[in-house]
């Protein structure tokens, strides 16, 4: 699990595809890959010229199959990122896309890849029909599209504002590009062509005291169909009198904020701007390969999971920060005295500071009704409620102090009530 969460966000040289490489909040870069669930590479970093050889894998390919679980958060997007970005209603969140790197000369995406830019939001973790559209833009002038030339002209950056009054909690933002350069035929009719969709999921925690909840939305997969005119569309030829291009999916939520311009970047870009090597990939045969720090290789079938086991509704907030001898990310942990918290019938957020042998964790748990008690004395064994309790490569606790360890997918198990 740790190897998968450590996936680098920067891709190898490939076709002129793209992915989200960083997120800004009110113009401040949060750092390369921070808060982002990166798509998996499709092959290993082959030996050769620095930093990798010819034929190396890459992670910026589109999703074409509208029925694939990858439509939700891309390949391996069901695995949580190790960090979550903090925002409040009214904040401007900007997404930076890039082809090969975050450097100024990056192509962003091939100029032929015209199409639409969209952003969805869902509680985290998502459930059925939980995705709500916050933004969309397609052909805004004749032959002028939101992806090319607008996104590319803005250095790969587009922005949304967190809706006013949005209730606090954990959410996923899902920026998406729908490109049309091969969309004159459905992918089901020609496996070498069809609409190309690029998406990632970004983990955000909304603060404040808002009370606006998201309405029922759509599911991924399921939101788009090959019969949608915005999915199968000939961008090179339009018959006289034909209706304008229609962006697929639901309408933009009435509670979404108005479109917003990109704020100026404050303080420059943070984190590595160029490619680094990787240790996890999903091959063409849908096999997940993980190379450990000791060079040992494990392989398993790729079996993505759309929703947590049992379809549980998402907790209001869940944060786990871990420091071990194998962790590469620097973590600051505040030491608190042992404390016991008890939550009654009203659903509110309960915070517990927990010590687990071999690692230090800070866990925030919301209990959705009922009475729950959590103690951080350090003598209890097992993972906390909503904590990780298993998965491929996981070396932490495999039992739960509360609840049952349920398998979400082969890479991630979680303690659930």
From TrEMBL:
PROSITE patterns per record: CBM1_2
Membrane spanning stretches: none
Extent of Low complexity compositional bias: 38-51, 317-342
Gene3D superfamilies associated with the record: 2.70.50.70
The enzyme's E.C. designation: 1.14.99.56
Catalytic activity of the protein: [(1->4)-beta-D-glucosyl]n+m + reduced acceptor + O2 = 4-dehydro-beta-D-glucosyl-[(1->4)-beta-D-glucosyl]n-1 + [(1->4)-beta-D-glucosyl]m + acceptor + H2O
Chain spans, region Disordered: 36-64, 301-342
Residues annotated as domain CBM1: 381-416
One Gene Ontology cellular component: extracellular region
GO MF term (any one): metal ion binding
CDD domains xrefs: LPMO_AA9 (cd21175)
Keyword annotations of the record: Carbohydrate metabolism, Cellulose degradation, Copper, Disulfide bond, Metal-binding, Monooxygenase, Oxidoreductase, Polysaccharide degradation, Secreted, Signal
Keyword Signal: yes
Record text about domains: Has a modular structure: an endo-beta-1,4-glucanase catalytic module at the N-terminus, a linker rich in serines and threonines, and a C-terminal carbohydrate-binding module (CBM).
Membership in a protein family: Belongs to the polysaccharide monooxygenase AA9 family.
Protein name: AA9 family lytic polysaccharide monooxygenase
């Amino acid at each position: 699990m740790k190897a998968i969460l450590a996936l680098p966000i920067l891709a190898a040289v490939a076709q002129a595809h793209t992915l989200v490489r960083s997120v800004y909040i009110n113009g401040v870069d949060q750092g390369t890959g921070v808060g982002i669930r990166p798509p998996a590479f499709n092959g290993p970093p082959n030996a050769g010229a620095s930093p990798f050889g010819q034929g190396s894998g890459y992670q910026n390919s589109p999703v074409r199959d509208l029925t694939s679980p990858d439509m939700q958060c891309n390949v391996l997007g069901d695995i949580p990122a190790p960090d979550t970005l903090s925002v409040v209603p009214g904040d401007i969140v900007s997404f930076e896309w890039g082809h090969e790197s975050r450097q100024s000369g990056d192509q962003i995406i091939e100029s032929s890849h015209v199409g639409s830019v969209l952003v969805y939001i869902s509680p985290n973790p998502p459930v059925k029909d939980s995705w709500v559209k916050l933004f969309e833009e397609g052909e805004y002038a004749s032959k002028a599209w939101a992806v090319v030339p607008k996104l590319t002209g803005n250095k790969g950056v587009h922005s949304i504002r967190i809706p006013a009054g949005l209730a606090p909690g954990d959410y996923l933002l899902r920026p998406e590009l729908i490109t049309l350069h091969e969309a004159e035929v459905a992918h089901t009719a020609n496996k070498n062509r069809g609409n190309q969709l690029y998406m990632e999921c970004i983990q955000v925690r909304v603060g404040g005291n808002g009370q606006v909840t998201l309405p029922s939305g759509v599911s991924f997969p399921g939101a788009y169909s090959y019969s949608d005119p915005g999915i199968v569309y000939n961008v090179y030829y339009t018959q006289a009198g034909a209706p304008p291009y229609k962006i697929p999916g639901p309408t933009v939520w009435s509670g979404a904020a108005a479109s917003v311009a990109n704020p100026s970047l404050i303080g420059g870009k943070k984190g590595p701007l160029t490619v680094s090597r990787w240790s996890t990939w999903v091959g063409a045969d849908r096999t997940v390969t993980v190379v450990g720090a000791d060079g040992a290789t494990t392989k398993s079938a790729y079996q993505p999971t759309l929703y947590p086991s049992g379809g549980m509704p998402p907790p209001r907030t869940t944060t786990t920060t871990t420091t071990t001898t194998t962790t590469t990310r620097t973590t600051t942990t505040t030491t608190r005295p042992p404390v016991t918290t008890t939550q009654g019938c009203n659903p509110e957020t309960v915070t517990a500071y927990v010590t687990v042998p071999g690692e230090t964790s800070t866990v925030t748990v919301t209990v959705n009704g009922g009475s729950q008690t959590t103690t951080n004395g350090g003598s209890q064994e097992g993972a906390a409620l909503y904590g990780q309790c298993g998965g491929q490569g996981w070396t932490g606790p495999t039992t739960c102090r509360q609840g049952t360890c349920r398998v979400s997918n082969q890479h991630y198990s979680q303690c659930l009530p």
